[in-house]
Amino acid sequence: MASENEPHNRAYAAAVLKQTVNMLKAKGEDVDIIDLHADHFNPIMSAEDLASWRTGHSLDPQTLDYQNRLLDADKIIFIFPIWWELMPAMTKGFLDKVLSRSILPKHGKSPFPKNPTVIMMTTMGTPPFYYKLHYHKPVFYSFWVGTFHKIGLKKFKWLTFDGDAKLAKREAALRKIKF
Known about the structure:
Strand order of the largest sheet: 1-2-3
Number of helices: 7
Largest sheet: 3 strands, parallel
Strand content: 5-15%
C-alpha cells in the first residue's frame, strides 16, 4: 500500500482504487473497471461527437460500451483527483461524451434499470474541510447536482481523501473505505 500511497507521488487515487476493488471483491461483488487512460479515451468532444450526442446515438463504439456498462451497474464509482477545485478534463470529457441523450431521463423516468448509487471518491491537496468551507465544494455541485441528480440518479455518496496528509493518516483513511 505504501508504494502507491506516497505523498506527492500522484498515486493516492490509485491506492484508493486498489482498496475499493479489494473491499468490493471481499464482499463478493463483481467489479468492472473503466480506466480512461488505459483505454486511450479521448475526452475531446468533436463535431461528430456533438452531432451524435444531439441525436442520442453515439457513433463511437467505446462510448457505446461505456454507456452499456453504466446502465448495467449497481454502483457507479468515480475515483479522481480534484484539480483547480474541479474534476480533471478526462473525467469531464467522459461525462460529456457518455451521458448523451440516450442516457437522459425520458418523460421523467430514469433509463438506469438498477437505479445505481453514484459514489464519487476524490483526492485533493486542499484539506477537505477547507475545500468545503472556503471553495463551497464546486465538484459536488457540478458532478452530483448538475449531472447525476439531473439525470435521475438520486443515491449519492462522496468520500474525499486528503492528499497532503501524512502517510500513516492516508493509510488509515484507506482502511476505512466501505459502502
